[in-house]
Amino acid sequence: SSNIRLAVIPGDGIGIEVVTEGLKVLDAAGVKVEPTQYDLGAKRYHATGETLPDPVLDELRGFDAILLGAVGDPSVPPGVLERDLLLKLRFQLDHYVNLRPVKLFPGVETPLGKVLPGDIDMIVVREGTEGPYAGAGGVLRKGTPQEIATQDSVNTAYGVERVVRYAFAKAASRERRKLTLVHKTNVLTFAGDLWQRTVNRVAEEFPQVATDYCHVDAASMFFVSQPQRFDVIVTDNLFGDIITDIGAAIAGGIGLAASGNVNPDRTAPSMFEPVHGSAPDIAGQHKADPTATILSVAMLLDHLGFAEASARVEQAVADDLVERQGAWVARRTREIGDDIAARVAG
Amino acid sequence: SSNIRLAVIPGDGIGIEVVTEGLKVLDAAGVKVEPTQYDLGAKRYHATGETLPDPVLDELRGFDAILLGAVGDPSVPPGVLERDLLLKLRFQLDHYVNLRPVKLFPGVETPLGKVLPGDIDMIVVREGTEGPYAGAGGVLRKGTPQEIATQDSVNTAYGVERVVRYAFAKAASRERRKLTLVHKTNVLTFAGDLWQRTVNRVAEEFPQVATDYCHVDAASMFFVSQPQRFDVIVTDNLFGDIITDIGAAIAGGIGLAASGNVNPDRTAPSMFEPVHGSAPDIAGQHKADPTATILSVAMLLDHLGFAEASARVEQAVADDLVERQGAWVARRTREIGDDIAARVAG
Ligand SMILES: CC(C)[C@H](C(=O)O)[C@@H](O)C(=O)O
Ligand SMILES: CC(C)[C@H](C(=O)O)[C@@H](O)C(=O)O
């Protein structure tokens, strides 16, 4: 098959370091990749004031996939790069599935005292293009004692149904075949009702999948006390943001949490990125763990149809994680990348 | 001093069992209480269709405080009792501070493998009368493929400032004097900006308090990986709902999590309740842990100015929790209440 046309956005801080290792592993997997680097992020913002110019966005549409490190820097006003670059990519490229596996690999230390690797093995299907992330809302009488600020969650049948359908298909493909809707239907009644009705309706097409419901507060608790409860979760953009960070915490930390911003209809390239941020505090110190990025690369390969290469990368990570256990010396970013790449190359 | 005029709403399921023990301990504390029971909850809803009739709400206004067990039953459409009873009480009685201590008592088992009691000792000050709980929003073209459902978070300078001010005062009264705002300012920009500006402004009046900020997703992760980070947290209604359930999970479970719905201006009675629900699955089996309710009673006493009695109840719970450790036999609801009451009585 022809080369993968890959857009690479290393971004800021440790994003640059971890993406280097991700590309190294991709290369080791023997899949032919043609990478094009994009210098989006804090530096470009400071140099030109640009975050994601339209011509760049248009160019990005032509790629097979995007690999992103992390964006954000304390020198940029908070939210600017998040909204005008990261979220803009997710929304404009219609990444309506934000796929976040939460899996405890053998050998990985979890803060939970009593769970075993098999106890934590779920996939969160987070909606990626609407909800409270829509940017709707406003402010009146700003700066006065009469100020009022609203923030509106926008949920459409179109947007909810497509992500729910994806989640059911994902659940149907797994061993446990269980799908849990996480929401807050008892309080967010308008949005919650649309989500619940949609799940009920699509469930009829998937009789082999057991469906469940859990309020987001209870789910957050169960992530800590009974993570075994969950197989596939479908949830809204904001709840997904929160619970996947709890997921990262229980499954060994943010250094291992991978994600895919997926456009299942393939009308635009999907984007793969570690869940962690740019971590300016440790940037340039070769301390960042590139594993989350490497696992994101495995998701990228799987998305593009290279199932065997994807499995090989994931297995290499799994083996590396077992070997880390009890190791005396922490490896540098590059060393972890080298070791995993060597395993992948076989 | 004169008797405490206490309205008691046992509610449904285990609410009834735990409130009995709460009253027992209140009695043992030697504070004179004049309780009046209200049969609000599922039974009354089924019998009369009423959740919280206006005359009852008016009567409740005349009490010094309210003790609530839990409301909710599978026989009632989801959300009805939550919204038309529980949330109506919080909103109508202007409980703008939802106070939720997250404290790991010695002897209590936490799912976190490596934390010690001193590591988890925080108070979450959750806003209680606005935000996404306002009930604002709506639905268009319901049931069609063109359906759109919105859910609006309403935040006012008035509402945010009063809870932020309360949180600063609370932080100033504690040893660490640290206040963390938890929000999602990088995405929920309108509401987040109001919250952040308010914290910045009120901070000037409390130079002795160190202020910090944490996105809700990161905070949720830190509850699991570094709970030591937090002393007092101030946050919006929905984020507070979620993180206090994580708090309950890390501090020994929902059986120990107390809360106060506080009206600090005392224009209406405050209401104290365990964070847990009515747990229909174990109702009537004498299995419910009344400790959360008893700790809520301690908060009630403190709110009404009985600081010494409050401290005695909390100490009795602390001692009981140490004794539970390593006990072979689980006690029934009533036995736990008896034991704690005996300690309180001295
Ligand atoms: C950086 C931020 C906008 C983003 C989000 O909220 O989605 C991040 O937290 C994530 O989870 O990818
Ligand atoms: C029952 C529900 C409406 C309530 C809430 O969301 O506030 C509960 O979860 C709580 O935390 O007290």
Automatic annotation (TrEMBL), chains A, B:
InterPro entries (alphabetical): ICDH/IPMDH (IPR050501), IsoCit/isopropylmalate_DH_CS (IPR019818), IsoPropMal-DH-like_dom (IPR024084)
Entry keyword set: Manganese, Metal-binding, NAD, Oxidoreductase
Superkingdom classification of source: Bacteria
Isopropylmalate dehydrogenase-like domain sequence ranges: 5-340
Gene Ontology molecular function: magnesium ion binding; NAD binding; oxidoreductase activity, acting on the CH-OH group of donors, NAD or NADP as acceptor
Signal sequence extent: none
Pfam families attached to this UniProt entry: Iso_dh
Cofactor: Mg(2+); Mn(2+)
NCBIfam families given in the database record: PRK03437.1 (NF002898)
Protein name stated in the entry: 3-isopropylmalate dehydrogenase
Native source species: Acrocarpospora macrocephala
